[in-house]
Design goal:
CATH topology: Aminopeptidase
CATH architecture: 3-Layer(aba) Sandwich
InterPro entries: Acyl_CoA_acyltransferase, GNAT_dom
Largest sheet: 8 strands, mixed
Oligomer: single chain
Domain N-acetyltransferase: 7-171
Pfam family, one: Acetyltransf_3
Structural class: alpha+beta
Protein name: Protein N-acetyltransferase, RimJ/RimL family
Low-confidence stretches: none
Bound molecules: coenzyme A
CATH class: Alpha Beta
Shape: globular
Distance between the termini: 21 Å
CATH superfamily: Gcn5-related N-acetyltransferase (GNAT)
Helix content: 25-40%
GO molecular function, one term: acyltransferase activity, transferring groups other than amino-acyl groups
């Protein structure tokens, strides 16, 4: 387990499947996330039951509140390789009543610290829809900077949106 100021990051359990299914079917939660094909509850339960351990190239954590021990979201570092010392970061807080409480920022900071200290990464990168102001702000608060803009690369709500490529280098985490 990895502990921050507000959250604890812990490996995913088979029992987490139902919460993920609920979050994936909430239009507010998935609004700015890349759409995947719909999964039935039985399929997601089977996927979680068969999930292998975290590895260097695929680290996935559930985000629990430190205060209540409640599962509120998920974050990952994926596609890391020792040759590049780089990984891609994903995050979402699925429990909307916890939005705006600093949990997303703390989970980002906590997982990036894990990436730099435990995995010895040199850089962590992500794509975020430019209009997703809360996410951009959370990433900037821990030190991510905008590297570039991919114009009209995300389709959502019937139109195209720009995405930002952001990255954080070892030593820049605040
Ligand atoms: C985006 C998300 C991760 C942010 O996490 P959070 O816990 O709600 O955000 P935090 O409480 O840590 O706040 C982050 C910052 O964004 C600001 N913020 C929150 N909502 C905002 C909004 N609608 N517009 C502008 N800024 C906003 C907060 O005020 C805070 O900045 P501050 O401390 O300077 O005031 C979370 O809302 C979420 O998971 N949303 C759905 C999925 C998603 O979009 N994931 C990111 C994909 S890249």
């Amino acid at each position: 387990m990895v502990t921050g100021e507000l959250v604890r990051l812990r490996p995913l359990e088979p029992e987490d499947a139902d919460a993920f299914w609920r979050w994936h079917n909430d239009p507010d939660v998935v609004r700015w996330l890349v759409a995947d094909y719909d999964e039935s509850l039985a399929q997601i339960r089977r996927r979680f039951a068969e999930r292998g351990p975290n590895t260097y190239s695929n680290v996935a954590f559930g985000i629990e509140t430190l205060a209540e021990g409640r599962l509120i979201g998920s974050c990952t570092l994926r596609d890391a390789s020792p040759e590049t010392a780089r990984a891609w970061f994903d995050l979402y807080i699925g429990e909307k009543d916890h939005w705006g409480g600093g949990f997303g920022t703390d989970a980002t900071r906590t997982l990036c610290r894990y990436g730099f200290e435990m995995m010895r990464l040199h850089s962590i990168a992500l794509w975020v829809v430019a209009e997703n102001a809360a996410a951009v702000r959370a990433y900037e608060k821990v030190g991510f900077r905008v590297d570039g803009r991919h114009r009209e690369s995300f389709r959502g709500a019937g139109r195209w949106h720009d995405e930002l490529l952001m990255s954080l280098l070892e030593g820049e985490l605040t």
